[in-house]
Amino acid sequence: MSTVAAQPITGPCAWLGAELASSTSWIRRFTPAELAELDAALGAVRARGLAWRRITREDFPLPRFSADLAAVRDELEHGRGLVLLRGLPVERYTEDELRQLYWGLGTHLGTPRYQNAHGELIGEVRDELRAYGAVNQPGVVQATGAPVTSRYKARSSGPLRFHTDRADVVGLLCVRRARAGGVSKIVSSVAINNAILARRPDLHALLYQDYYRTREGEERGGDRRWYALPVFGVRDGRFTSQYSRTFVEAAQRIDGIPKLTRAQDEALDLLAEVAEELCFEMELEPGDIQLLNNHVTYHARTAFEDDAAGGRDRLLFRLWLSLPNSRALPPGFEVLWGSIEPGALRGGIAQA
């Protein structure tokens, strides 16, 4: 049963941005031996002509590196909830080879999940507005004043507010940096929980109650365009948070959805304020793989500017992973996750 955390939650997942800035223990550089194993596994799947979607863990053997990746998985679930793998020589590979390599590595961490209703498994985070023209974005108002209610803000070059993705872990492989901007911002949602408890316990309690969110633009099928879920939850002493203010705001335009109270809105304002205070900012370098546990971290991004002609157009490959060592979730969270049992295959976007 989900209960309000009446005391601060302690442990390595309750880190502060200033602490992260003074440490490199969360950064893990690829070793020459690990890169050699990755190259050997990549060579084997390419020799067989395996498309990246068809690669299994058995197809991509990493005899020694797999043990280190198991330790990474443990850190994601039981440690800080974040790991940065650094030093993948992305310039050696074509984009197709990178997809095969990234997918193969990901199978040693967890099971990839669908990121939208169209079956996307490796998302491309880039400025599609520049590359392909207008892209609809949830919760964004057009110049005409009409709200746009589909697809992702992540597909433009604009800033992204702090949020979680719908999987245990999100992985971002930086292929290319932008000409300017695109700074990654990460924060411990556990630390946010503790700070709000100390400052405003009345608003803290509200965040353990239901907020209505929209499904529109994210999923096909189902009887409802919306669902209700708390922002914070605890089960068996383990914390979880699912947060995107964009989808809360979009749900307010749906007929029949209860309007946010002033106190509920104030709680979200305070959450956003504390997230900015406690966050850590970093610039992802080509070859970085940022891994974040969505149950205990939020992530955001500043706006960016590309220079496509100069080869500086931002491109990240995104994986959503269900972890075999994941935590149990509070009752009621099935509405988003599908299963709340520990280690269950869960998350992602249901396919029609």
3D structure, described in words:
The chain is an alpha+beta fold and 352 residues long. The protein has one domain: Clavaminate synthase-like (Double-stranded beta-helix, 4-Layer Sandwich). The protein contains ten helices and 19 strands. It has helices spanning 17-21, 32-47, 65-78, 95-106, 128-132, 189-199, 201-206, 245-251, 262-278, 334-337; strands at 27-29, 82-86, 111-112, 123-125, 140-141, 147-148, 160-163, 169-176, 180-181, 184-188, 210-214, 226-230, 232-235, 238-241, 280-282, 289-293, 297-301, 304-305, 315-322. Strands 1, 2, 3, 4, 8, 16 and 19 form a seven-stranded mixed sheet that branches. Helix 2 (32-47) packs across helix 4. Mean pLDDT is 89; it is low at 130-152.
Question: How would you concisely characterize the structure shown here?
Answer:
The protein is α+β, with helices and mostly antiparallel strands and 352 residues long.
CATH topology: Double-stranded beta-helix
Q: Identify low-pLDDT runs.
A: 130-152
The pLDDT mean sits at: 89
Largest sheet: 7 strands, mixed
Shape: globular
In sequence order, what are the helices and strands, one letter per element?
HEHHEHEEHEEEEEEHHEEEEHHEEEEEH
**What structural class is derived from the secondary structure elements?**
alpha+beta
Can you tell me the CATH architecture? 4-Layer Sandwich
CATH class (first level) name: Alpha Beta
Number of domains: 1
Treating each run of at least 4 consecutive H or I residues as one helix, how many helices?
Answer: 10
